[in-house]
Amino acid sequence: MKKVCVVTGGGSGIGFAAAKEAAKKGYYVMIVGRNEKKLAGAVEELRKDGCEAEAYSCDVSDREHCFALARHAAECGAVKAVLHIAGMSPHMGDAEKIMQANALGTVNINDAFFEVIAEGGCVIDTSSTSAYMAPSFIMPKRVYPLACTDRKLFMDKMMKKVKMFPRKTREGVAYSMSKHFTIWFAKQDAARFARKNARVLSITPGNFETPLGNLEKEEASTYLKFAAIKRNGLPEEIAPLYVALIDERLSYLTGTDILCDGGCIAGGASAFAR
């Protein structure tokens, strides 16, 4: 039976680099995204290298799309890994769309793949260093549990909090909140997946040379002075981390976030230190 690895946001950047790493390890890779042309190009490149891969168009903010994706993945083989790397930056949409894609998108993917995850499988959600840099006191942590019981009320209360901030800052605030929520959600979801002998982790990338990262390059450069490594990362420097963590021999590792940011947060980067 094929070992299936689903990679959202797999058409380019970190997602595509992770898809290549997983394919090298013998996984049947499903590259997921919204841009069908980009997905087709990514799959073609993998197949040229002799890898088994397919493209699947899906908007992770659409819950039904996510469940359809999970059902199809299960038809392809044993779903051993889900690398949820898709997301929206503050430059890619308004505050509500960012919250839907990043926060609800994570809930949708985890919920959908809980139904089909194979024993020994692993889901890795993706956050951002903005979750660490934004002040903790602005995070509506009491609202987070609603994502597990009432998604509409969750969104209403999250957006109500976002709208307390000046209009010009709302996209950035929504992004930080959504990524802070992602870390929380992955941690609390570990107990649910453990009942199926599966794991949940999150990875927090720093600034990487990717199409998404380039949208924030100017702002990100202000934090390089805090980093131990004075440059942005390359997708090839984090992709092996995703694939290493889905190794079934790491069966006791779950419910935690792993930073890969060149030492930026460790160096004291925060919203108040620029």
Q: For the record, give the distance between the C-alpha atoms at the N and C termini, rounded to a whole number.
A: 51 Å
* Number of domains as seen in the coordinates: 1
Strand content: 15-25%
CATH topology (level 3) name: Rossmann fold
Largest sheet: 7 strands, parallel
The averaged pLDDT comes out at: 94
CATH homologous superfamily descriptor:
NAD(P)-binding Rossmann-like Domain
Number of helices: 10
Task: Please state how the strands of the largest beta sheet are arranged side by side.
Answer: 3-2-1-4-5-6-7
- The second-level CATH architecture is 3-Layer(aba) Sandwich
Helix and strand composition category: alpha/beta
Element-level helix/strand string: EHEHEHEHEHHHEHHHE
The quaternary organization reads as single chain
Number of strands: 7
User: Regarding CATH, which class?
Assistant: Alpha Beta
Radius of gyration, taken over Cα atoms and rounded to an integer in Å? 18 Å
The percentage helix is 40-55%
Taking pLDDT < 50 over at least 5 consecutive residues as the criterion, the unreliable ranges are none
Keywords: Oxidoreductase
Protein name: 3-oxoacyl-(Acyl-carrier-protein) reductase
Pfam family, one: adh_short_C2
GO molecular function, one term: 3-oxoacyl-[acyl-carrier-protein] reductase (NADPH) activity
